[in-house]
């Protein structure tokens, strides 16, 4: 185990549903990340939080809404998604957003299917 | 443009055989290169990490090489096991604006058959 947990592991939702993905890290890290992984494509960075402040948003549609209430927890709120949003959503954490931000630890991911 | 290209896209080998996966990158300025193993439906787990000055690094049956001049890396797996079946992702990072940016390859999907 990497010290990063994600729930749920699998999620099926309709396009009109609202759901949330949860990530928790037990490593004492200060930076957390959301990635999207689609089949046969590189991981795409979605959001970056450092000390609970959003520091990066890579042109992600507003139907994805992140929340970071503290340095150990990260949420991704989902609403009115499209079928092309079906993917594996990975959470990661690193010691900081600076020098040690290359050392990222990943959670197991949430497999999302939008019907 | 910063890119990481991996080859082959997929590979099938028999248990006990060796294999080599390739990674070419155009990332600059280079900070470090890491190989991850990702089992199906799981998150990536780091295998090795190399900085500019390192040419080779081993982790059990996994050996990674780095040629910073040609901007190429390889991951060699010796005496493959069924549990090696996974995707192997090459990640190159560069330091810019006070933090590291990671560029991910699309991965090589390895299947080890008995």
Number of separate strands of chain B: 11
Largest sheet of chain B: 6 strands, mixed
* Helix proportion of chain B: under 10%
H and E order of chain B: EEEEEEEEEEE
Mean pLDDT of chain A: 91
Number of helices of chain A: 0
Count interface residues per chain for the largest interface: A-B, 23 and 23 residues
Which regions of chain B contain 5 or more consecutive residues with pLDDT less than 50?
none
For the largest beta-sheet of chain A, the strand count, sense and barrel status come to: 7 strands, mixed
Shape annotation of chain A: globular
Computed CA radius of gyration of chain B, to the nearest angstrom: 14 Å
Fold blueprint:
The complex is a heterodimer of chains A (115) and B (114).
Chain A: E1 4-7, E2 10-13, E3 18-25, E4 31-37, E5 44-50, E6 53-57, E7 64-70, E8 73-79, E9 87-94, E10 105-106, E11 110-114
Parallel strand pairs in A: 2-11
Antiparallel strand pairs in A: 1-3, 3-8, 4-5, 4-9, 5-6, 7-8, 9-10, 9-11
Chain B: E1 4-7, E2 10-14, E3 19-25, E4 32-38, E5 45-51, E6 56-59, E7 62-67, E8 72-77, E9 86-96, E10 99-104, E11 108-113
Parallel strand pairs in B: 2-11
Antiparallel strand pairs in B: 1-3, 3-8, 4-5, 4-9, 6-7, 7-8, 9-10, 9-11
Question: Top keywords for this entry?
Answer:
heterodimer, A: 115 residues, seven-stranded mixed sheet, globular, B: 114 residues, five-stranded antiparallel sheet
Please characterize this protein's 3D structure.
The complex is a heterodimer of chains A (115) and B (114). Chain A is mainly beta and 115 residues long. Chain A is built from no helices and 11 strands. Chain A starts with a strand and ends with a strand. The mean pLDDT of chain A is 91. With 114 residues, chain B is an all-beta fold. In chain B, the strands form 2 sheets. In chain B, strands 2, 4, 5, 9, 10 and 11 form a 6-stranded mixed sheet that branches. A 5-stranded antiparallel sheet of chain B has the order 1-3-8-7-6, with no helix packed on it. Chain B is globular. The chains are: A mainly beta (115), B mainly beta (114). The A-B interface holds A 2, 4, 6, 9, 40-43, 45, 88, 90, 92, 97-99, 101-102, 104, 106-109, 111 and B 4, 9, 31-32, 34, 41-45, 49, 89, 93, 95, 98-100, 102-107.
